Amino acid sequence: MTTYDFDIPVDRRGTWSIQWDGVADRFGAPGLLPFTISDMDFPSPPAVLAALQERVAHGVFGYTDWQNEEFRSAVRDWYRIRHDTEIDTARLVYAPSVLNQLSQLLRMWTEPGDAVVVHTPVYDGFRKAVGGLGRELRGVPLDDPAALEAALAGPRSRVLLLCSPHNPTGRVWTEPELAHFASLAQRYGVAVISDEIHADFVHDGHRHLPWTRFGRGRWALITSGTKSFNFPALTGSYGLIGDAADHAEFVRRMETGEGLGSPAVLSLTAHIAAYREGAGWLDALRAYVAANLELVASRLNSAFPELGWALPQAGYLAWIDLRALGVDEGALQRELVEVEKVAIMPGGVYGAPGFVRLNVGCARGKVGVGVEALTRALARLG
Fold first, then answer.
1. Which string of b and e fits 293-328 if b means at least 16 CB within 10 Å?
2. 259, exposed or middle or buried, with CB in 10 Å at 0-12, 13-18, 19+?
3. Residue 1 pLDDT
4. What residues are paired with 317 via a beta bridge?
5. Is this structure's pTM higher than 0.85?
């Protein structure tokens, strides 16, 4: 059995990293230790790196066809083995990113002024994509089925935008919940777009169910291997669109209106290698990250028992509810940035002041520094 050492830190400074080199742009101070945007500090799996090196050694990077059997079969087999789900690869589409797919689908299925229903708190990329296209972001609380139905029944509601698993909370939707979403969407004639980019990072005891199992009428599943295998800078995402005419229209728009018929070949290479040979690495990483989350829970709940913080069901983002401590978000950010010299995402970014989102996709030593900094800052404000 292959073992992987995730404790070795990797210096990402000077690599044009948004998380590391761009931290001052968001937090106003250079040199902070970042626990921010959702990429990890770990190198991609050895199998992915080897495949990329082999492809680079070939030396020719001409226009590339994503509709090849190697890619299609890698995706199909991953879903069958990893998610016990058969998919129809004739419904596959490809795009530079998940948010790019989302924007294209919203242009296809909505008009300016239409409403897109989301669960709150909400990933800030959704807010930017929806608002940037002149659509209304109609938010409903995560655990309020009545509010969800009212929003879907509301005027000009056209799309239910799911985050599955949910970002920032790490919630994994259950089969009854997903079936209920599908029923409501059908009842009110609303399309469903399910962003499943965190699907492969579900923790033990929970199970991700792809939207292909529930989709009726107009729907799309949009996703990528870039999060779980940590190669977002290579770009690249793929999706599945339920209706044949919608599928054809999406491909037409990408190849003509957007001029994006040829993908980044290294992204295709990375996806194929990850899905064919990366499962063992991913399982080892999930276990490592779960231990990182346990460390956060142990330290926070020891210092502040009233938090009772529970681990997320998926992902490497610790969504922490600090409201029991009555801490002002602005004051906490000043303590973290000016005194502790760390950058941790405030909940207000996701429409939820009183929370923080701490990225633990990094070596355990760094996690320890971050949680201790957060604990000290909270103690001083208590």
1. bebbbebbeebbeebebeebbbbbbbbbbbeeeebe
2. exposed
3. 66
4. 359
5. yes
